């Protein structure tokens, strides 16, 4: 290696080192800013993808905007979402990511054994968890539905209902029979799921505003539970979406047991129905209510076939789960990738400090625009008592 080549190599090495130092300085700067933002909040932040979102900070701001202005990542995220969601006015709302609900361990202070807000006591119990409202865990999102995020108020997704047909010909001047595909559409329209709760003056004062995080967390989990329920059994009335159970053309199986209970033949029939409809593929799984799950797990297949209808969380090799959000005496079995969960923007949190001005209470509201639809209803079987 001659002197010129050596010098070129050294020059390249120096340039790479300088660039590395530049990137390192940038990373340190971002880290310091994140730490600064975290220290401003009163509750643990939501962390995902390198960003932090403090839900408690948002609720404190909503309770008293003039005293606690919104800044940092929380403001940046909300401002960005205002231009990406629905084009409807949500005055005073702050948009929050759904992922901010994932934080479970929070330092809320202490609550007395009674259930009223006036019973909040100012006792230091750091390190303990709040005894939260018992809510159903989200099952639908764990089944792998197709989640899409929309900005247009109305969306129609083309659906290839009937495809072309193929034919054999002799090759002796015979024409191929023409066939035309049938196109339909899956409609997605924003449906608004909301919840409202009131925080009393004493609740806000004795917890130094941290009650705001408790309220925000419960509001958003309340929405998540309701959306889960409607995705499974929604009937499409009163502004709610139509869930899997009530979709037109969903395959059905009526239990043959006496009394009317699921049998080994019913579990096989669910698979047969999907196979006959050419839909036995994708993310196949079952969902049922707790009582039915218990029956499945304690019922033997047949005298000739050993084992129970459900073993190790599976029915005939396919996973099955239980939730109170599923209708009683019902099994929903199918390809859950065919379920579409549409979201318009993020959860919008807002407050009304004026309605209960005389008492000093603050009303918090959570609003989530969403819809559910099924691309091919024949991808699901409703196996039930009736």
Question: Describe it for me?
Answer:
This protein is 28% helix and 24% strand. The chain has helices at 3-40, 55-63, 72-81, 201-206, 211-233, 264-276, 290-298; strands spanning 46-48, 51-53, 94-96, 110-111, 120-121, 146-150, 155-162, 182-188, 191-199, 251-254, 284-288, 314-315, 318-322, 330-335, 339-344, 347-352, 362-374, 380-384. The strands form five sheets. Strands 3, 6, 9, 15, 16 and 17 form a six-stranded mixed β-sheet that branches. The protein is extended and about 70 Å long. Mean pLDDT is 77; it is low at 34-46 and 101-132. By secondary structure, the chain is of the alpha+beta class. It has a domain at 133-386: 2-Layer Sandwich (Major capsid protein gp5 fold), CATH 3.30.2400. It has seven helices and 18 strands.
Give a brief outline of the structure:
With 386 residues, the chain is of the alpha+beta class. The chain has helices spanning 3-40, 55-63, 72-81, 201-206, 211-233, 264-276, 290-298; strands spanning 46-48, 51-53, 94-96, 110-111, 120-121, 146-150, 155-162, 182-188, 191-199, 251-254, 284-288, 314-315, 318-322, 330-335, 339-344, 347-352, 362-374, 380-384.
Topology, please?
Blueprint: H1 3-40, E1 46-48, E2 51-53, H2 55-63, H3 72-81, E3 94-96, E4 110-111, E5 120-121, E6 146-150, E7 155-162, E8 182-188, E9 191-199, H4 201-206, H5 211-233, E10 251-254, H6 264-276, E11 284-288, H7 290-298, E12 314-315, E13 318-322, E14 330-335, E15 339-344, E16 347-352, E17 362-374, E18 380-384
Parallel strand pairs: 6-15, 10-18, 11-13
Antiparallel strand pairs: 1-2, 3-16, 4-5, 7-8, 9-17, 11-14, 12-13, 14-18, 15-17, 16-17
């Amino acid at each position: 290696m001659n002197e010129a080549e050596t010098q070129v190599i050294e020059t390249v090495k120096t340039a790479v080192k300088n660039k590395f130092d530049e990137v390192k300085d940038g990373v340190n700067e971002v880290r310091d800013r994140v730490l600064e933002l975290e220290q401003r909040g009163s509750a643990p932040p939501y962390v995902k993808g390198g960003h932090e979102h403090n839900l408690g900070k948002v609720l404190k701001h909503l309770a008293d905007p003039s005293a606690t202005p919104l800044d940092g990542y929380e403001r940046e995220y909300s401002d960005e979402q205002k231009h990406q969601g629905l084009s409807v006015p949500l005055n005073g709302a702050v948009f929050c990511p759904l992922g901010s609900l994932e934080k479970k361990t929070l330092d809320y202070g202490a609550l007395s054994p009674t259930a009223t807000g006036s019973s909040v006591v100012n006792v230091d119990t750091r390190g303990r968890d709040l005894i939260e409202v018992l809510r159903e865990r989200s099952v639908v999102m764990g089944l792998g539905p197709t989640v899409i995020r929309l900005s247009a108020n109305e969306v129609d997704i083309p659906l290839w209902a009937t495809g072309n047909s193929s034919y054999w010909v002799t090759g002796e001047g015979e024409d191929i029979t023409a066939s035309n595909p049938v196109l339909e559409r899956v409609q997605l329209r924003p449906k608004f799921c909301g919840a409202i709760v009131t925080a009393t003056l004493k609740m806000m004062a004795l917890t130094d505003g941290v009650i705001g995080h408790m309220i925000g967390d419960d509001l958003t989990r309340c929405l998540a539970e309701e959306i889960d329920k409607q995705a499974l059994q929604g009937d499409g009335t009163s502004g709610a979406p139509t869930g899997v159970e009530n979709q037109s053309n969903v395959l059905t199986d009526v239990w043959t047991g006496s009394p009317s209970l699921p049998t080994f033949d019913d579990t096989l029939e669910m698979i047969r129905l999907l196979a006959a409809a050419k839909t036995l593929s994708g993310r196949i799984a079952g969902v049922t209510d707790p009582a039915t799950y218990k029956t499945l797990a304690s019922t033997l297949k047949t005298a000739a076939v050993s084992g129970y209808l459900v073993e190790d969380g599976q029915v005939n090799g396919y996973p099955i789960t239980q939730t109170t959000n599923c209708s009683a005496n019902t099994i929903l079995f199918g390809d859950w990738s065919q379920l579409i969960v549409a979201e318009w923007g993020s959860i919008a949190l807002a407050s009304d400090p004026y309605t209960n001005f005389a008492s000093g209470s603050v009303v918090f509201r959570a609003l989530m625009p969403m819809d559910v639809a099924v691309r091919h209803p024949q991808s699901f079987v409703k196996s039930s008592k009736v």
